[in-house]
Amino acid sequence: MTDFLAAEDRALLQRHGLDSFDALWARQLDAVDEPNTSGEGWSSVFRLDLEGQGYYLKRQNNYLTRTLSHPFGEPSFSREFRNISRYRELGIPALQAVFYGQRKVDGQVRAILLTRALDGWDDLDSLLQRWPSLTAAQRTTILQACGQLARRLHGMRQVHGCFYPKHIFLQATASGYQAQLIDLEKTRPLLFGLRDRVKDLEPLLRRASVWNEGEVRQLLSTYLDQPQDAALVDNWLTRLTARRSHKETR
Questions:
Q1: CA spacing 20 to 30 A to 151: which of 115, 160, 179, 235?
Q2: For residue 204, which of 232, 154, 166, 242 has the smallest C-alpha distance?
Q3: One short Pfam family name for this protein (predicted)?
């Protein structure tokens, strides 16, 4: 597999001698959290700052995911990079890849995924913690941004698989908020219509428990492109509430 290097970041990485797999692998950085381990493999995330531009450098060694298409395993970053690329092609707002590459060294598979940091953005989880202090206008535009994001995602026949508040990032704009997604490892095609859509959307509403019914209706109104009192919004609210109750009582 040929290494990927985003044209927009090439010059900056070159100036710092970080435009190759070996250089990014060797760069000494402090991990942002404890590494994940699986068998003899590991996966770790590091913060990289270059001339005011922030990045997250993710490195794996023999940290493999086995699927039907890859029965002997592939780096989980490989799947995430494919999904990032697919989202970009489909116009679904999401984090941006800067570099991807993998190597086999002494019988073990190494992988690197470098993405742009979302500096200046807030994850929805942190906004929910401040929800009572936000203005009515801020709440409305956040709900609309989330609804638009879900509408675009499912309209492009994709299921995120982890549509949680911590994976939705928002940024205030002159006209409201814009939203995008991170953590695309579990993304897959939307195959089962309404069932897939409800299953994907329900975890967001379950975790955003601070939202009242009126606010959920605002989100669904945008997602479905229907008035808040429309029968279709009623139907979706009933389906989502039933699935949420089922999940909470398991």
A1: 115
A2: 166
A3: Kdo
Rounded distance, CA 3 to CA 41, Å? 22
Question: Which ranges of the chain would DSSP assign to H, the alpha helix?
Answer: 7-15, 21-26, 76-90, 124-129, 136-155, 193-207, 213-224, 231-249
Of the pLDDT bands very low, low, confident and very high (cuts 50, 70, 90), residue 94 is: very high
Q: How confident is the model at residue 64 (pLDDT cuts 50, 70, 90)?
A: confident
Helix intervals (H) in 156-212: 193-207
Biggest CA–CA distance in the chain, Å, is: 62
Sheet with strand 36-38: strands edge to edge? 4-5, 97-105, 108-116, 53-61, 41-50, 36-38
Query: What residue ranges do the domains of the chain occupy?
Result: 4-116, 122-249
Q: Which CATH superfamily is domain 122-249 in?
A: Transferase(Phosphotransferase) domain 1 (1.10.510.10)
Residues 6 or more apart in contact with residue 92 via CB below 8 angstroms:
152, 153, 156, 158, 181
In whole angstroms, give the CA distance from residue 133 to residue 218.
Answer: 19
Closest CA to 181 of 54, 86, 47, 61: 86
* pTM of structure: 0.93
Q: What is the mean pLDDT of the chain?
A: 94
Residue type for position 136: A
Is the separation of the CB atoms in 115 and 55 below 8 Å? yes
Q: Which CATH architecture has domain 4-116?
A: 2-Layer Sandwich (3.30)
Reading the block at residue 163, the tokens are: 């549509």
Q: What is the mean pLDDT of residues 49-62?
A: 96
3-class secondary structure, 159 = strand
